[in-house]
Amino acid sequence: MPGARAHDLITVVTGVALAPLTYSVLIQSGVAPDVALANTGVLVGAHLLSGIMFSPDLDLDSRIDDRWGIFFWIWRPYMWFVPHRHRLLSHGLVISQLLRLLYFYTVVLLLLSGGAWVLARVGIVVPDLPRRISNTLLGLINEHPRESWLFVIGFCTGGAAHTIADWLVTGGIRYLHRMGFRVTRDYSDHDRWQAPRQRARSWGR
To answer: 126-184 pLDDT, tens per residue?
Structure first.
């Protein structure tokens, strides 16, 4: 399978390719040029966000979760419970992307709720942030349905580009093997990337 850098390049290239296509479709749908440009930015931005930060390879300890910095640990439960390269939950075309988005949203709400509970125990009352965030998000969806759909579509295409690339490489290698060609490069460990220095925080590998 392609490595992390190759997947990043695929994500960027497919995002660039989607930009004129999305803009043209919006213009033909009667959307004003300036609005179509902004809407195109929403889809392409979601595509890049999904492919680079919410990659399907978040289902294991890899270079991808390093990108979350000190917040890498929020993906540990996801890694433990989602089988790597699962065709539905991890490396699917739609459901797996939405699952990661829902997982992240749930984790954020749980962390905010837990933090508010701890502060309340010491006499500090904070606003009900989970409820406010949920209401704000629902309000944005209701007020901007087209932009919301474009974000979801872009988020799905970002992860799908990764998955399709994996499928093409895997299928291509199998096809070459059947034709008698020998592929000497080993892609089996592509997503267990390690920095030159040993990472001290690699739990449960």
So the answer is: 888 889 999 999 999 999 999 999 999 999 999 999 999 988 876 544 543 455 545 45
Q: Where do we find the tokens 């739990």?
A: 203
201 within a domain of the structure (yes/no): no
* Structural domains in the chain (count): 1
Would you state the structure tokens that stand for residue 139, as one six-digit string?
Answer: 């309000």
Tokens 């033909």, residue?
A: 28
Question: Where do we find the tokens 């267990």?
Answer: 192
Q: Is the pTM of this model over 0.85?
A: no
75 by Cβ neighbours in 10 Å (0-12 / 13-18 / 19+) ranks as buried
Domain with 27, as residue range(s), is 4-178
Locate 168 and state its tokens. 């093409």
How far separated are the first and last CA of the chain, in Å rounded? 20
CA 137 to chain centre: 19
- Across 8-128, the runs of DSSP E, i.e. the strands, are none
Q: How far is the C-alpha of 117 from the C-alpha of 105, rounded, in Å?
A: 18
Estimate to the nearest angstrom the gap between the alpha carbon of 178 and the chain centroid: 34
